[in-house]
């Protein structure tokens, strides 16, 4: 009998889903309930039934899991950013490990060695980027926070435990300055107001901080006074900008930036690669975690001095450039023009020798890989780091045509990675091993690195 909306059921939670919700079964039907832990016995209220699966919310926890802990953030539930803050970190890691293994077994149909998950070097305060929506609290005062799940209702939060304390302090300080100078937040319903978001970046190694106010117009009242107060209070602030987004949209950033002070960017390093970061730069939000992730990718790639390395979906070029000194040549492909310009600049900052052996060009990964394959480019190693949807069929086909002896697949979505690995396994590649890496503690997301080697290759990898 199908579940009914608002029906109350008693449900044992068996595991976690990819988004961090608990999963139980009611008469064979999977029920997804956020805020639960494997081992919980709960009473759940059904909020939606989709015939083969349903969604619920917790009415009460009848028997708590031994892995359940009190959430140490007062807004962890309504905020939704930390979907696993109620779970011991060891249990979180185990759930992520199981999710990766399940994806490769169930979706990929692959029996493959899944290495023990690598924990994040930092469990709290690890994010180097903050995007606070700005609004009014229940008392009509300017506040920052985060959107509640599936809404644009701001849950005020002055001290997010995923962000460095100094970035939270800057956010609170800016709220006071906006109040002081009568600068109003943007209201989505009326279209009135000026400040939409406070966007902050901090270099994990350099300590430099970028402050960016996302506004509906380029002119910020009292900009000089606000900037002077901000830089006087926080000496690590290297640059302050206004990003202009006049559109009625869910997209946070616009394309126009107006620099109020400083160079308009901050500097940092990632795996020894010097980078410059502006508001529009893509950059991994967990720097120590990214260095761990890319370290695994480099170990799996294991380039030799005579190798040609092809880096698809290269972004700012960080993964490939971190290995460039160990190979003969590097080719990077990325569809975002600004990222390619950053990759070229990063290579130049690494010195003449690295710049001379590195080539980056802007193209769709599938089209570029097909063109390179048609030109007879024969990379010894290919590294791919696609978006969550994974590689398209054209990219996978071109990889097979180019026939690298080793392929390293970096993924933020184990399900699509397992799907793509299964396709490659049918086309002459063997999945050697899979390394889960926790880049986003206290959330349901997990990264993994997959090593695939060409069967019957002259230099077949047994790493």
Topology, element by element:
Blueprint: E1 8-12, E2 15-16, E3 22-26, E4 29-33, E5 41-49, E6 53-63, H1 76-79, H2 89-107, E7 113-114, E8 129-136, E9 142-147, E10 154-156, H3 165-180, E11 195-202, E12 209-215, H4 223-233, E13 237-244, E14 256-261, E15 266-270, E16 273-277, H5 287-301, E17 308-312, H6 318-323, E18 329-334, H7 337-349, H8 352-357, E19 358-362, H9 365-374, E20 381-384, H10 393-402, E21 406-411, H11 414-426, E22 429-437, E23 447-454
Parallel strand pairs: 4-6, 7-22, 12-13, 17-18, 17-20, 18-19, 20-21
Antiparallel strand pairs: 1-5, 2-3, 3-4, 5-6, 8-9, 8-11, 9-10, 11-12, 13-14, 15-16, 21-23, 22-23
Biggest beta sheet attributes: 8 strands, mixed
Calculate Rg over CA atoms.
24 Å
The number of helical runs is: 11
Low-confidence stretches: 458-463
Give the termini separation.
Answer: 51 Å
Number of DSSP-assigned strands: 23
Placed side by side, the strands forming the largest sheet appear as 7-22-23-21-20-17-18-19
Mean pLDDT: 94
Helix residue percentage: 25-40%
Q: Helices and strands: which structural class?
A: alpha/beta
Strand content: 25-35%
Shape: globular
Family: Belongs to the class I-like SAM-binding methyltransferase superfamily. RNA M5U methyltransferase family.
GO molecular function, one term: rRNA (uridine-C5-)-methyltransferase activity
GO biological process, one term: rRNA base methylation
Organism: Candidatus Faecalibacterium intestinigallinarum
